[in-house]
Amino acid sequence: MGDIVLTEPIVIVGQQVAGEAAKTRKALEQLIKKVNTSAFDIADLLFVIKKNGYYEGYPTFAEFIKTLDLKQRKAQYLCRIVEVMNAIGAVREKYEPLGVAKLREITSLDVDGEWVNPETGAKTPLKDFIEGFIEKGKDLTLEEIKQHVRTLKGLIGENNLVFLHL
Known about the structure:
Elements: H1 13-52, H2 61-66, H3 72-88, H4 92-95, H5 100-106, E1 114-116, E2 123-125, H6 126-136, H7 142-153
Antiparallel strand pairs: 1-2
């Protein structure tokens, strides 16, 4: 018998699929990073517009937002993120890796408020907790941050919010 000559390289299907999966995941991660970066760019610009009153011709910042192709609530929390981060002196490179969802929860806290420990009565500025979340937030899940924020707001125990679905 003669030798078999292959004109096509031998491909093991599992490796080919794994390679495509890895390539596709990398492309997806790059797009997500661009979306997140864009969200923070939008947040920075919204904050500048609000802070400097660059919504001329509109009675309020909220009226200005309605003219954009952006949901009003999203514009509000993006602007709030930058507002709170500026209030505590955090730079974007430090807080951006946490992502919008975690920062949305963290910045729902009153930066000028304080938490009173129910056991000791000791008062701690919420600013300190916000700074701590920025430092350690990458290691916490969104659910853990939500629970900590609820505790700081006093929304636990008998004050816990209950949702009724109709």
